[in-house]
Amino acid sequence: MQRKSFSLKCRHFRNNGCQNNGKHPVLFEIFGEMWNVQVRLGQGVSASVYRVSSGRASMAAVKEFQVDAQGGDYGYLKERSVLENIQGHKNIVTLYGVFTNHNPLGIATHCLLLELLDVSVSELLVRASNQGHSMWLIQHCARDVLEALCFLHREGYVHADLKPRNILWSPDDECFKLIDFGLSFKEGHQDVKYIQTDGYRAPEAEVQNSLAQAGLEGDSGCTSAVDLWSLGIILLEMFSGIKLKETVKSQEWKDNPAAIVDHIFSSNSVVYPAIPVYHLRDLIKSMLHSNPSSRSTAEAALISPFFSIPFAPHIEDLVLLPTPVLRLLNVIDDSHLYNDDEYEDIIEDMREECQKYGSVISLLIPKENPGKGQVFVEYANAGDSKEAQRQLTGRTFDGKFVVATFYPLSAYKRGYLYQTVQ
């Protein structure tokens, strides 16, 4: 019997990040082991973040703080202190350790060794192409961020810089996590005058920032309510697919933000089921009261009816959010499933091909619905799964173009092979 085989179709891939151009470290010595710098993931005023790997193929992120010209280490000490005090929650980035890097010029820089995360909500918004995200994705993100905020606020902390770029997807934990606690503070002990990012800044933070710029002191510091305001704007952007920075600066918004929220929802609700739309709209409006004392808390927001509605992911969601499980579509004809010899040959071919990109833990091709004829490949980690998706997308199997998406590991493990929304 002739075995089915993959054939390569030439493609061009863009590396997501800046290549090492000699202007940043090539190696970090971390706890006596050399880690290679693969790519710079981001660069800010006070720090740069790199993706690094060790000889054991471990992956992590390093946040290297710039040398302070005045000799202070405030930014590093601040973020380290906050992270050390809030470790252990699944929706907050994990701090593995801290170390000092000595570069060839003899300059020492302070570094944080952090859990490596993946795509940010900011990147997801760019890829949404002004269409808005699915209810499944919005709900998933909203719940994860609110869980993190509940924990933070119970511990007495305010994040104070919640924005799409600071919410990242964890492929291995299959959830969104908060990063960047450089502006965070203990409620009632605000030691940062200028908080939050333009476009996600609560009204009371705008007032406080204006007073600080004028050299004046406000009556009191900001509270955890500023984080709920930021999340409300983020969810509104995810629903609409539109950046709202200019909108929230307008006088119309300042006069009546609820009316603009209603308008955005009435303009987009035609593509969504009515009841979930109403619940999401009301949830967002509860976070966007101008008076912080009227704003919903994170705990109250989590009991919104919006979170009681089950949603299935769109196929686009499973392309955007990596997991250790790869799902291959448009591969198997029904006729292949009922010939035992041919079915076993296909299983063998699939496993052989997929093992080229990483360690395959399991492989499943259901013979019945749901999932009939789809190929599910569980890899040892999401990095292998991502490489397989990159390599297999656009290839052909038995003359058919392969479509490769990810699939939730949690659902796969319990045998839940739901039909995704096209």
Description:
This protein is an alpha+beta fold and 422 residues long. The protein has three domains: 27-114, Phosphorylase Kinase, domain 1; 121-311, Transferase(Phosphotransferase) domain 1 (Transferase(Phosphotransferase), domain 1, Orthogonal Bundle), CATH 1.10.510; 316-413, Alpha-Beta Plaits (2-Layer Sandwich). 35% of the residues lie in helices and 20% in strands. It has helices spanning 74-85, 121-127, 135-154, 203-213, 225-240, 245-249, 251-255, 257-268, 274-287, 298-302, 315-320, 334-337, 340-354, 382-392, 409-413, and strands at residues 6-7, 27-30, 33-43, 47-54, 59-65, 95-102, 108-114, 157-158, 167-170, 175-178, 185-186, 325-329, 360-364, 375-379, 396-397, 400-401, 403-407. The strands form five sheets. The protein has a six-stranded antiparallel sheet, with helices on one face. Strands 13-14-12-17 form a four-stranded antiparallel sheet. A three-stranded antiparallel sheet has the order 1-15-16, with no helix packed on it. A hairpin with a 2-residue loop joins β2 and β3 (33-43). α8 runs antiparallel to α9. The longest helix has 20 residues, at 135-154.
